[in-house]
């Protein structure tokens, strides 16, 4: 019994040259009416010259459709897409790929998709989204938007998505600001990713109310963080702030993040750190501070981080390491110090901070590996390329 259909409309010349088809029904013929209604997955690729405005066509023929992929790259066909999606009350997964001058979506684009759980939108020229375009997607759990031309997000865009667990804005190169409260109401959100290379500033309390958030990634060009930007994120486990433009951090920016396990700060422009900025991160297992401009570190930078296993300080400008900097890091397994400006004397101080098995290489690239005292914890540490975990 047929469960999946894959249609590449262009690979057969769209049948247009011979039969002058003008609609999806023409391309597929009357077979649409004969195909078993239990089909659950349909892929329509390269829908170039197909008019999609045959209201409810898919819903009528595929009432049990669960997964749909639409790849549309001709503007003239697009306005009918909303009508085409009508009647798909059982649809759970939708992948929509739009190209060539599709700059916005119909406001009722997803109306009636009451079972939708996962939505991915890829649109190369999409610049705006209607405020209520997601208003009926109350069961949606995953939303990914890849839109390099997107310039704005309307206030309340995500407010109806009270079941959302993952939200990712990918390759949002033209997005320069976020409206205040844009993430309000997303109380079940666990993963939030923003890849916005033109975003330089966050609104105050941008993440307020995201009480379930576990993974936050801000790969932008932020110059600074509001002092209370991360307040209330008590369940946060992974925080990625790499490749921004931070030159400094607020003294208590990480307060209350008592569940945090990994912190990525590499690829910024940090020249110094506040005293004990990591003090409340008692569950932290990894800090990556590589590829910054750090020349010194406060003496108690890592005090109390008793679960820390990986510490990356490579590719900075460190000349001096204060005495006792690594004191108490009994669980540490990996320490990266290569490509700094440490003298041989400083290297000897580092050696003294660890067991006698410490290996030091000082030929411009300092790499430190050490074997733990017990056999089962014996490890060698080697440098890794940028961004490796």
Q: What characteristics describe this protein?
A:
389 residues, 19% strand, mainly beta, 16 strands, disordered C terminus, 6 helices
Rounded to the nearest angstrom, the distance between the terminal CA atoms is 45 Å
Shape: elongated
Helix content: under 10%
**Beta strand %:** 15-25%
Walkthrough of the structure:
The protein is mostly beta strands and 389 residues long. The chain contains 6 helices and 16 strands. It has a 16-stranded mixed β-sheet, covered by helices on one side. The radius of gyration is 26 Å and the shape is elongated. The two termini are 45 Å apart.
Would you spell out the secondary-structure blueprint of this structure?
Elements (H helix, E strand, L loop, with lengths): L3 E5 L7 H4 L4 H5 L2 H4 L6 E7 L9 H5 L5 E6 L8 H5 L7 E6 L19 E6 L18 E5 L19 E5 L20 E6 L18 E6 L17 E3 L21 E3 L21 E3 L21 E3 L21 E3 L7 H10 L5 E3 L5 E3 L20
Parallel strand pairs: 1-2, 2-3, 3-4, 4-5, 5-6, 6-7, 7-8, 8-9, 9-10, 10-11, 11-12, 12-13, 13-14
Antiparallel strand pairs: 14-16, 15-16
């Amino acid at each position: 019994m047929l469960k999946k259909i894959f249609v590449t409309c262009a690979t057969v010349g769209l049948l247009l040259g011979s039969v002058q088809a003008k609609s999806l029904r023409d391309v597929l013929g009357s077979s649409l009416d004969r195909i078993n209604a239990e089909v659950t997955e349909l892929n329509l690729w390269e829908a170039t010259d197909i008019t999609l405005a045959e209201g409810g066509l898919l819903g009528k023929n595929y009432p049990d459709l669960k997964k749909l992929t639409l790849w549309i790259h001709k503007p003239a066909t697009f306005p009918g897409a909303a009508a085409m999606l009508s009647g798909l009350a059982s649809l759970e997964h939708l992948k929509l790929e739009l190209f060539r001058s599709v700059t916005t979506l119909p406001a009722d684009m997803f109306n009636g998709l009451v079972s939708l759980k996962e939505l991915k939108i890829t649109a190369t020229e999409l610049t705006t989204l209607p405020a209520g375009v997601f208003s009926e997607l109350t069961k949606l759990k995953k939303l990914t938007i890849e839109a390099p031309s997107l310039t704005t997000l309307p206030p309340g865009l995500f407010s109806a998505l009270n079941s959302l667990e993952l939200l990712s804005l990918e390759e949002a190169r033209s997005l320069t600001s976020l409206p205040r409260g844009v993430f309000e109401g997303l109380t079940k959100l666990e993963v939030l990713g923003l890849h916005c290379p033109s975003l330089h500033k966050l609104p105050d309390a941008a993440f307020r109310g995201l009480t379930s958030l576990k993974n936050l990634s801000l790969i932008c060009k932020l110059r600074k963080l509001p002092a209370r930007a991360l307040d209330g994120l008590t369940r946060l486990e992974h925080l990625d702030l790499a490749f921004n433009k931070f030159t400094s951090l607020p003294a208590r920016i990480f307060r209350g993040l008592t569940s945090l396990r990994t912190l990525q700060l590499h690829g910024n422009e940090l020249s110094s750190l506040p005293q004990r900025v990591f003090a409340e991160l008692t569950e932290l297992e990894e800090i990556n501070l590589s590829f910054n401009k750090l020349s010194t570190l406060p003496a108690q930078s890592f005090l109390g981080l008793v679960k820390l296993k990986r510490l990356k300080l490579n590719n900075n400008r460190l000349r001096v390491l204060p005495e006792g900097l690594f004191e108490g890091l009994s669980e540490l397994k990996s320490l990266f110090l290569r490509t700094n400006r440490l003298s041989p004397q400083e290297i000897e101080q580092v050696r003294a901070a660890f067991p006698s098995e410490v290996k030091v290489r000082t030929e411009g690239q300092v790499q430190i590996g050490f074997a733990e005292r017990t056999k089962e914890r014996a490890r060698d540490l080697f440098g890794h390329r940028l961004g490796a975990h």
